[in-house]
Amino acid sequence: MLCQSGSSTNDAGFLKTLDLQRFKNGDDDQPSLKDGVCFARLCQMECRMLAMKKIIFIIFACLFLISDSMFMVDQRQQAIVLQFGQFVKKHQEPGLKFKLPFIHKVNYYESRVVGYDLPPISLTLGDQKRLIVDTYTRYRIADPLLFFKSIEPATEAGAKIRLETLISSTVRNVLGKVTLAQMLSEERPDIMHKIEQEVSGNAKNWGIEIIDVRIIRTELPTENRHAVFSRMSAELSRYANENRAKGDEKAQTIKANADRETTIILANAKKYAETIEAKAKATAIETTTNAYKKNLKFYDFYLKMKVNDTLLDNADCFISTDGPLGSYIKEFASKDLGKND
Question: Is pTM, for the whole model, over 0.70?
Fold first, then answer.
């Protein structure tokens, strides 16, 4: 039997294959009615399966077309839509966007700030000294359409190639007009600011906004490092000796001024002291004179005693008896002898 009543759809493939083989091989020239019914059922099943496959294919095709007509712009990105290489639209706001499937192509670019550490640049300064400069830049793509039109290839790698060429030429041009001493002095920030301004002005034409350009390292080439260091050491020694001489000169000036002021102060102090001493002596003499005027005999006696005290200290002193002092001593001696008798 080719077909049994109550056969399930799972046997459809087997029955179909078996009946087709029988008809093709001519094994049954007169198929039974039951076989015809089974064959009709098989044909009906086959039509349903084909219709189901078509529906599934259409669904998948619609889903594919819908998915290809939508794209997502991340908040860290920006995008431009191209049609056969020609610009159609740009999207700088994040969200779900739409395009024509198979016709439109989307290019994505970073909207964040990107850093790029450039290779070291060997250059000659304004004083003919060789120098190796290492620079670092931070930038962002401000206009994706202008970036796409100006940079070839319009990728991050292409942007780095163009920036490397621009920054290298700008650094050579600016530093070629300054000296090594200026690079090592307080003028260095101004030099970097000038480089940044020139690079920023040229990069705007490419849709690139320069955030910062920095010189992060400068060093001398190995072949002339020793000679430059020796020259710098000699220059610094000369500068130190010059400053030391100026310091000694200033120290001598300060010392001379101090000595002069000291002499003036001591002279004024001595003068003031002598003035006070003279006033004191005058006051003492005036006081003594006023006191002696009250008793002249006592004053005469005091003077004689003072002279006598001075003379008695000298054993070789001779005093005449005819003088006032001699007569006084004679009188004093005779009175002293009379008392002893």
Answer: no
